[in-house]
Amino acid sequence: MKYKIHYLIILLCICCIIKTNCQNSGKNSQNAVYAKISYNKGLEKIIAKDYDGAIADFSDAINLNPSHTDAYIKRGQLKLELNSADEALIDFDKALKLNPDLGELYYLKSTILYNKQLYQEAFSNIEKALTLNFNNAKIHYYKGVILFINDDNNKALNELKTAISIDSSFSYAYNDLGSIYKQTNKFDMALENYQKAVKIDPSFAVAYNNLGIIYSIKKDYNRALEYYSLAIGLIPDYYKAYNNRGEAKLLIENYNGAKSDFEKAIEINPDYYIAYNNLALAQMKNDELTQALSSLNKAILLNSTFAEAYVNRGSVKEKLRDFKGACTDWKQAIQLGIEKANEYLEYCK
User: Fold this and answer.
1) Could you tell me the pTM of the whole model?
2) Are 235 and 224 in contact, with CB atoms under 8 Å apart?
3) Is residue 92 part of a domain?
4) Helices (H), strands (E): how many in the chain?
5) Is residue 107 included in any domain, yes or no?
6) Whole-Å CA distances, 19 to 24, 64, 279
7) What is the C-alpha separation between 259 and 230, in angstroms, rounded?
8) Residue among 46, 128, 206 nearest 143 (CA)
9) Which CATH number is 78's domain given?
10) 109-154 pLDDT, tens per residue?
11) Is residue 36 part of a domain?
12) Distance between CA 90 and CA 78 in Å, rounded?
């Protein structure tokens, strides 16, 4: 009798375990079905452009089935589209934890990290994507740009050329190819690639600005002004283009026009110290020495290591007969690497 009771207890426990497992299994299966329904609803809402609703559905799918890789991916892609890059990064990492062989996600992570200026991390994710045979024009483009930032110009050129071989209409790749050629003083090749960029995309303001820079280098200032103006027409708050156009006007002795452009650049970006220095140069040409001194003081306040501004401020102080102040500025410029300022120190003896 005693053994029968023990046997019945054991049998009852086994039945309870089986029942619990069956219930859990049934619940998990049911949750998986509901998760799939929520996921499909999310896909439908993407088509209807109800992105917030789609994110809510993908979140429901994940709550019901925490191993739903596709729901993490879709939610992450939507968050990236809606400028919630940090949240997208979290979703991509969770998806990769579930499936580490998703090359596209390493690529998407690299774009986020690149935009956050975390170039080394971006580069690592690009390399991982490529090892998983995820290969498109953009991934070679990003790799090329990061190599360019790290001054590895030859490898950068190869990657950008690869991007163009995959997608011959990739205007950004042509533009950055032009920038590498510009940096290596191959100005005709730079010009050719910038022209290809704007031919593909006539609204590419940055490429027009770069064309202006090349024509300025070639001393064709009228053409430079034309391209700077095109860039500004496309992006009215493009302060760097205003500054560049002002520099071109300065070189053709249109000092008032130059001042106007530098002032506009400063209005758009009050922290753009280069424009304050350039404004001072135009003011000096108009004998507005007090105003020039004020502009240079501002440039140095914004960037205390801006050597060129010390040289120019020294020149202004000399004209204002502040010889001691001029010598102090020129000495500071020399310490910051402007050896040309040694010539001015002759006046300090």
Assistant:
1) 0.82
2) no
3) yes
4) 18, 0
5) no
6) 9, 22, 83
7) 19
8) 128
9) 1.25.40.10
10) 999 999 999 999 999 999 999 898 888 899 999 999 999 999 999 9
11) yes
12) 13
